[in-house]
Amino acid sequence: MTAIWTEKYRPEKFDEVKGQEEIVSRVKAFVEQKNMPHLLFAGPAGVGKTTLALVTAKQLFGLSWRDNFLELNASDERGIDVVRVKVKDFARTKAMGDVPFKIILLDECDALTREAQQALRRTMEMFTKTTRFILSCNYSSKIIEPIQSRCAIFRFKPLSEDNVGEIIKHITEKEGLEVEEEAKKVLLEVSEGDCRRLENLLQSCAVLDKKITKEGVYIVAGAVKPKEVKEVLEMAAKGKFLMAREKMLEMMLSCGLSGLDMIKQIQREIWSLSLDDRTKMQLIDRCGEMEFRMTEGADEFVQIEAFLAYMGVIGNKKEN
Predict the structure, then answer these.
(1) How many whole angstroms separate alpha carbon 157 and alpha carbon 272?
(2) How would DSSP label each residue in 241-301?
(3) Is 114 exposed, middle or buried (0-12, 13-18, 19+ CB in 10 A)?
(4) Which neighbouring-strand residues pair with 47?
């Protein structure tokens, strides 16, 4: 890039976006040519979609990026008036500088109503010469087909363990933190490839102690140790329903876990139980049913108890 940067202003670079090398290389090529189509970034939370959009704008426009870049969060402003007023007003003016277009970032655009998406579809078509859209979403299936066909689609993936480990190393070196190896494994497990969640966990742990331990991560994350979950499931499978029920409710209340959080941890631990594959499949199927019932408004404690009771029934059948 030929832009001159002041000492106070250092733009983010493409190599700072971790774990999405193929996508970054293609977007970087667009920036180098100073020309690009509308872009659709789809993928889970915390993997770099918004960051890459901001890096693209800063590398394209340099110091004038704020004048040529509009960011809207569609989950807050999701109606048709936003597209008709804010987006159109910004799109109809020419860009400043030697790049022939402006950029509008619509974050979480899968929250836009169908009517707003229909209006956006026409706006994207009308102002192609002066504006490029970057649409960011978690689920591309919620974006209407006419918008998808107008965009180059980039599907982001969750960060790998190596990427997350690299981020942990970078943060701990900069902040002077010490992280135990066991704590790193827990951070990898709890963050589930979400960089934003990882950074929040590290910051919360660092407030308590500069040395980050496995126990500290579990406390901050509000998660139960996998060993404890496994013990409860084994109790239930052996027919010790009342003991399993009491310990499970105690864990949920002491850690402040919702039923959905608990059922996800149960689902992960089922695979480590000493049961045959068919039984594990039945339990996973029941986990899916419990999760659906909870999202539909069923009482989470009743559903968890029902699952433990189901495990006891299956365990009893195996013994007989």
Answers:
(1) 26
(2) HHHHHHHHHHHHHHHT--HHHHHHHHHHHHTTSSS-HHHHHHHHHHHHHHHHHHHTT--HH
(3) exposed
(4) none
Give which of 151, 80, 148 is closest to 118, Cα–Cα.
80
pLDDT tens-digit series, residues 134-169: 999 988 888 999 999 989 999 998 888 888 888 888
- Tell me the pTM: 0.74
Query: Which residues are within 8 A (CB) of 7 and not within 5 positions of it... i.e. 6 or more apart?
Result: none
Q: How far apart are CA 131 and CA 91, in angstroms?
A: 6
Which residue bears the tokens 């807050």? 76
106 forms beta bridges with 72, 135
The 3-state DSSP class for residue 69 equals strand
Domains in the chain, start-ordered, CATH in brackets? 14-155 (3.40.50.300), 161-221 (1.10.8.60), 226-319 (1.20.272.10)
**pLDDT tens digits for range 239-278:** 888 888 888 888 888 777 788 888 888 888 888 888 888 8
pLDDT of residue 8: 43
State the Cα–Cα distance between residues 251 and 159, nearest whole angstrom.
29
Counting as low any pLDDT under 50, the low residues of the chain are 1-10
Cα distance between residue 167 and residue 161, in whole Å? 10
| Sequence-ordered strand ranges (E) for the chain | 38-42, 69-73, 102-107, 131-137, 151-155, 178-179, 211-212
What percentage of the chain's residues is helix, strand, coil (to nearest 5)?
Answer: 60, 10, 30
Contact 148, 41 (CB under 8 A): no
Residue type (1 letter), 134: I
